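This entry is listed as follows:

___
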Amino acid sequence: MTSKASYDTVDHYLVPPQPYTSSFLARLSTFILHAPFDIVESTLRPSSTHSDKTDHINPNSDALRPTQFMTTVCQGLLRFLNMEFTSADHASPDTIPLALCLLLRYRVASSSTSQRDDERKYEYAISGEDGSELITVPIPYLTSRSCYRPEMSDATLVAIAVHTAYKFLAHDWVNLEHWAVPLHLSRHALLRGERTFLRVIEYAVWVRQEEYLQIKGRLEDLWEEVFRKAVRPVPPDFVMKRLKTRG
């Protein structure tokens, strides 16, 4: 992943627009957070056997439809990422895919049920002293359990994931609380949620290049095959009233 682009002029840096839309962010975030966990794993995780069949995913189901507030916050996040900065620390085009990778990591860690399950998932092959055979032993992988906090809204989680990815790639340590007012989110909820989010993923914000490219490819495939075709949400009432008065 590249953290900075080289689009510059004498006076300022030209910021290339983000290659992903707010709908992409809202739809795939909602899928990661609310689709059945086995579906999320089989669809997105690199360790799973990828299936090209996505017909069983209904993008118009209530569970996979972003709320209006989620959609609004994602639109605000895209405005942030597309801002023209006066330095090279603008948002990387990898920001949104990395944010979704971190959100997936959060969902996986939050969904762990027991250490025994974790031990079966994480094994390490070692050779005997004479090098003649390989033995497999379980390695306890302690994840944070029961850490998914219902009081932390989807919009808050996504804002935290995007902010974390942005800071990691741009090396810009802007405080998360500065995003609260423009996004209409609680400053307290954001700061408290950031601590929880990082603790759950064990502060692992770096994603291996191979894993990142695999997940990014699966996210893009899921968008093209399923969610791009989804029915657009009905505009809120105040928008409908304005449209009627103009019509």
